[in-house]
Amino acid sequence: MHIDWASLLDIAVVAAAAALAVVLLVAFALVGLSTRSRHHADGTGNDPAADPRPAIGVAVAVLCLLAACLIVGYGLYLIVA
Prior knowledge:
By secondary structure, the chain is mostly helical.
């Protein structure tokens, strides 16, 4: 039995990078969605000047989640095909 160690290393590196990318994209999406909240931990809130554009955070969150879904979808495609 022959194991191609170089190919196995390539697959391990790509899998680790894809997993890290998905985790980071989901984390950035959560940070982007958190811009919609106007409640702060110190009790202050409802300050309209605190975040003038929450739509930008939502747009970033949507793009990050779309990218994460594309990565996962491509991985599933590679497994099924």
